[in-house]
Amino acid sequence: MLKRNPCIANIKAGYLFPEIAKRRREYAASHPDAKIISLGVGNTTEPILPHINAGLVEGARRLGTVEGYSGYQDEGIAALREKISSVFYGGKFSINEIFISDGAKCDIGRLQLLFGAGTKVAVQDPSYPVYVDGSVLTGAAGGWEGVGYAGIAYLPCTAENNYFPNLDLIPQNSLIYFCSPNNPTGAAADRSQLTALVKTALNKSSLIVFDAAYSEFVRDPAVPKSIYEIEDTRLCAIEVNSFSKPAGFTGVRLGWSVVPKELKYSGGESVNADWSRIASTIFNGASNIAQAGGLAALDEEGLKEIRALTDFYLGNAKLIRDALQKKGITCIGGYNSPYIWAHFPGRDSWEVFSEILEKCQVITTPGVGFGPAGQSFIRFSAFGHRADIEEACKRLSVF
Ligand code: PLP
After folding, report:
1. What percent of the chain has pLDDT over 90?
2. What is the predicted pLDDT for the residue at 232?
3. Closest atom of ligand 1 to CA, residue 179
4. N or C: which end of the chain has fewer CB within 10 A?
5. From CA 6, how far away is CA 126, in angstroms rounded?
6. Strand, coil or helix: what is 245?
7. Rounded to an integer, what distance in angstroms lies between the CA atom of residue 107 and that of residue 120?
8. pTM for the full model?
9. pLDDT band at 142 (very low <50, low <70, confident <90, very high)
10. Tell me: the pLDDT tens digits for 323-338?
């Protein structure tokens, strides 16, 4: 039989959500009458709004007509790429720099192929698990026979540094994953912080993968929605983004990446050309139905719906934050982000998770599952129906 890819054995962090699901099942089995509410996952809950949904329906209808039929479109429908450039980037990218995908997570996984085994990686700690797990899976962090995490620099984001890392910890020539507004902390980096990040990347011959999956939750004008709002970024950054959270496309699957033409490897080769090659080699493009929905999401009516949906989740976030703060619990996030990051000093995240489950029948996410600096924190997610959020908040008041 074939030998197992050793990189798979190196993945340690992927247990988080299965472990939460297991604990939920066990609790439900021993408390059959409990009405458990989940504030644990980042999955969307509200229906797709009517105009955007009509775009999806129309996309499917057109596939049944001779004139509307379309097949493979590796890098995405040109009209959608143009629209993304104009809506999100003031038209400063050509359509050849914008690649439509089946989601930001999938792009993050595939992007690692550009750099391969042995690449040094730097991540915010805590961080969205795919940056670490995906790096380990491609052998980026430690080599094929390596030790998994040896090549990963964790950049602690704590109350002491206001959840923005010490950039001196970033190694020379590294792939830096940076997410703002951040999952899980909800922290959103301001212009001067992102300017410092870009400067550091340029000085250290490093490349930033900027995850902007929550950019549509930003309400504060001091918080950039894209890394490309910062000067000189075309030389050192790729951005990934997604329709999942702002348009409710978590199940529809649609995202994009921006890879500027100016971006070069150390040998001078074009990163953009290689990304285009990967799109046609191991990925055959996003669903054309999803792309029709994406186009509807980015016209005037669709953008109003995105605003309404993100406002709704931010409304949930405010309820959760207020409920926690009333209890005297210190938390951040929830302003430009659907996540609230609550601090329980001196306590173990899993122990607090269990206590909240026992006392409130509310599922949360233990912060330590996102990295060592997440210990003593709990992530509350604002993705939920309003009635469930209100009930959860009521229960949290007795916690
Ligand atoms: N990036 C971050 C930071 C996320 O939190 C998530 C989902 O929770 C994703 C990307 C995944 O996005 P997509 O659904 O487009 O794969």
Report:
1. 87
2. 92
3. 3
4. N
5. 25
6. helix
7. 19
8. 0.96
9. low
10. 999 999 999 999 999 9
The torsion of the CA quartet 301, 305, 307, 312, rounded to 10 degrees, works out to: 160
- Residue 150 has a pLDDT of 67
Q: Which of 255, 253, 306, 1 is nearest to 108 (CA)?
A: 255
Percent of the chain's residues with pLDDT above 70: 97
CA distances from 59 to 53, 64, 69, 160 (A): 10, 9, 9, 49
Counting ligand 1 atoms within 8 A of each CB, the residue from 99, 183, 252 with the most, and so the one to mutate, is: 183
Per DSSP, the residues of 94-138 read -GGGEEEES-HHHHHHHHGGGT-TT-EEEEEES--THHHHHHHHT
- Residue 41 CA to ligand 1 center (angstroms) comes to 11
The vertex-192 CA angle with 329 and 241, nearest 5°, equals 75
Architecture of the domain delimited by 13-42+302-396: Alpha-Beta Complex (3.90)
Q: Give the pLDDT of residue 26.
A: 94
Q: Identify any residues that bridge with 152 across adjacent strands, giving them in sequence order.
A: 121
Minimum-distance ligand 1 atom for the alpha carbon of 103? 15
Domain boundaries along the sequence of the chain: 13-42+302-396, 53-298
Helix (H) or strand (E) run with residue 340 in it: strand 339-343
Which amino acid, residue 300? E
User: Distance, CA 247 to ligand 1 centroid (Å)?
Assistant: 13
How far apart are the CA of 213 and the centre of ligand 1, in A?
Answer: 6
How large is the average pLDDT for residues 40-51?
Answer: 95
**Quick check: helix, strand or coil at residue 187?**
coil
Residue 187 near residue 332 (C-beta atoms within 8 A): yes
Which residue's CA lies nearest to atom 2 of ligand 1?
A: 213
Give the residue whose CA is nearest to atom 12 of ligand 1: 104
Distance (Å, rounded) from C-alpha 360 to C-alpha 276? 49
Please tell me if the CB atom of residue 294 comes closer than 6 angstroms to any atom of ligand 1: no
The C-alpha atoms of residue 42 and residue 125 are separated, in whole angstroms, by: 18
The hierarchical CATH code for the domain 53-298 is 3.40.640.10
Please answer whether residues 70 and 286 qualify as being in contact, where contact means their C-beta atoms are separated by less than 8 angstroms: no
